[in-house]
Fold this sequence. Notes:
Layout lengths: L1 H14 L6 H4 L2 H20 L3 H14 L9 E6 L3 E6 L10 E6 L4 E12 L2 E9 L12 E8 L5 E6 L9 E2 L8 H5 L14 E4 L12 H14 L9 E7 L4 E3 L5 E4 L2 H15 L8 E6 L16 H12 L6 H9 L2 E5 L2 E2 L21 E4 L3 E2 L10 H14 L3 E3 L9 E2 L3 H5 L4 E6 L1 E3 L6 E4 H16 L3
Parallel strand pairs: 3-13, 3-14, 14-20, 15-21, 16-18
Antiparallel strand pairs: 1-2, 2-13, 4-5, 4-10, 5-9, 6-7, 6-10, 8-9, 11-12, 12-22, 16-20, 17-19, 21-22
Helix pairs in contact: 3-12, 4-7, 7-12, 10-12
Amino acid sequence: MARKKDAFKELKEKLTLSPKPVWDQLAAKEKKAAERLAEDYRRFLSVAKTERECVEAMVALLKKKGFTAEPSARYYTVFRDKMLAVMVAGKKPPYYGLRLIATHIDSPRLDLKLHPLYEDLDLAFLKTHYYGGIKKYHWVARPLALHGVVVKPDGRKVKVVIGEDPGDPVLTVCDLLPHLSRKVQGDKKLSEAIPGEKLNVLVGGLPLVGSSEDKERVKLSILKILHEKYGLTEEDFISAELEVVPAGQAVEVGLDRAFIGGYGQDDRICAFAALAAVLELPEPLYSTLVIFMDKEEIGSDGNTGAKSRFLEKLVYEYLKLYGVTPQGDTVLETFLRSKAVSGDVTAGMDPHYMEVHEKLNDARLGYGVVLTKYTGHGGKYMANDAHAEYMAWLRRVFSEAGVIYQAASMGKVDEGGGGTVAKYLAVYGMDIVDMGPPLLSMHSPFEVAHKADLYMTYKAYRAFLSAGD
């Protein structure tokens, strides 16, 4: 009987997949490394709340590690202050194929309209237009901050951050009290209870000293404050990029501090993990390109999104660095020989909402980086679907590097779905797959990630960039 049980156990261990939490598999040294990485990430997430702020923070880290803005073996390039590309020259020229990671650094938020400031009932507000997929009720009755830049007609850029420093006032979008909201909100669908046109940010209530017959004294008072602090006029809103984001720092979550909670983790957790991997990368076999993109949350359109031709420009420059005169066929051949990762998050299973999850195939927090073979929706529509050969190659790379991973999709087939930048890079012929950690409360103002998954995402990216054939 004992032999039969042993044989059964051996066969089960040999043939079945039995996922285990990352924390159970880490030695004490790696647990400390994971905690250090999480703390560095928490600090980064606290200051990098816009695309421009992400680029600024990343460039500062790159400079500390000796990367330069001039073409060299380890250099970076910035495009329109919203996209960043980092290159590490390999032993093989780019023509033999790149190891490419693409992430995005934009996140759902509220953007100010072109003419945002108005007064009503002696209260001043800023009108907004939401950016990306949000649940509008998430954004009411909470402390908010204003981040961004204003560009003056003479080209001067004025950086604006209100609501983050100690002693700073915060902003907010007011909600309706429950005593009066039964018909206006309570009887409506959740998606309709708070219209987008009511996501107006409260910014003032003190009238400027003057005649009581003067109109819009509160609005003028706010303009006066903005002019004194930043030199702004109302017309300057036209050439501004001002984003309303949650106020406050990213924090540890849970009594055991297992998680990081904060705004913008989709997709800045992947961006940070990719940056951490490339910062420590010795000379790899294959030339490396890590690109941080904008506009993913609104379809990757625009000249700073994945649909732009910025990637092609980067490859042209990379080839020139090796003395190659780029031709159409050499650039295309470089892409065709490349291997790529779309660094993006996925939905983690929430035990309270299992009706939308498929337990066997969705991701669990704390079980490692997630390989997402395909995204899309409704029959894999608009999906990149990685080839089996590429998935097998990644499995081998992860096994050799000690990367703990899980393979997962996102939700039940008919529940919805999602998309990433993968399909826009796949058109160049390269192999590409989505890879990143799972999140809870994804696309909310306070997303939650497991520290162990962040660490394994970093290890996965580092292993991928370092991999040979």
